[in-house]
């Protein structure tokens, strides 16, 4: 489906093997400005479509970021190695990597402190492997931050990508964050180039702010914390569902 309104802020998609073979040239014509692409899951799974999606997104000029689906019952070190080895180098001009935390039942054997420590230790391990110029993003639902993570204040040091499917103008932003950097607002988007449904996302800020979030060359100045995006009450004019 084509864009029905002109977005004032960048919008994008996130994809995995579930979307099959994507025609990235058509995706580009829809006005997609960024894409998060699944790379790995747990300690050993590697998405078979990642390498092609990663290459093609860059070829057509769509900003790209890789994400890891975290499994709390898998080895932390194995998950860090799996993601870093599969991704390879963190290239300047790419979006920061993402840790995707979901499925509350998988975390029930851990205390709040242990859960948050695992997330933060994964982030620090990725920075050690990919470079101190890399500042990962945390993806979760708006309820996950409280129900599973207890609103741990340490999380606020990292940008939030929140999943909240609502027709409201803004998502529910969980504590400890004051605003979201990315908002996944539907899992039922339809765009040319992707067969079936695809997740649609809104960046909370201008194109310039989005570019400020990109990985910098080592030693370059720029945004390096959750202070990315814009705390705004503007109405979302993303593509309709």
Notes on the structure:
This protein has 241 residues and is α/β, with parallel strands linked by helices. It has one domain (17-213): Alpha-Beta Barrel (TIM Barrel), CATH 3.20.20. Helix content is 24%, strand content 20%. The protein has 6 helices and 9 strands; from the N terminus they run E-H-E-E-H-E-H-E-H-E-H-E-E-E-H. It has helices at 24-29, 50-60, 76-87, 112-130, 144-147, 207-213; strands at residues 11-15, 34-41, 45-46, 63-69, 98-100, 137-141, 160-163, 182-189, 198-203. An 8-stranded mixed beta barrel has the order 1-2-4-5-6-7-8-9. Strand 2 and strand 3 (45-46) form a beta hairpin. It is globular. The relative contact order is 0.19. The model is unreliable at 1-6 and 233-238 (pLDDT under 50).
List the helices and strands and how they pair.
Layout: E1 11-15, H1 24-29, E2 34-41, E3 45-46, H2 50-60, E4 63-69, H3 76-87, E5 98-100, H4 112-130, E6 137-141, H5 144-147, E7 160-163, E8 182-189, E9 198-203, H6 207-213
Parallel strand pairs: 1-2, 2-4, 4-5, 5-6, 6-7, 7-8
Antiparallel strand pairs: 1-9, 2-3, 8-9
Question: Summary?
Answer:
With 241 residues, this protein is α/β, with parallel strands linked by helices.
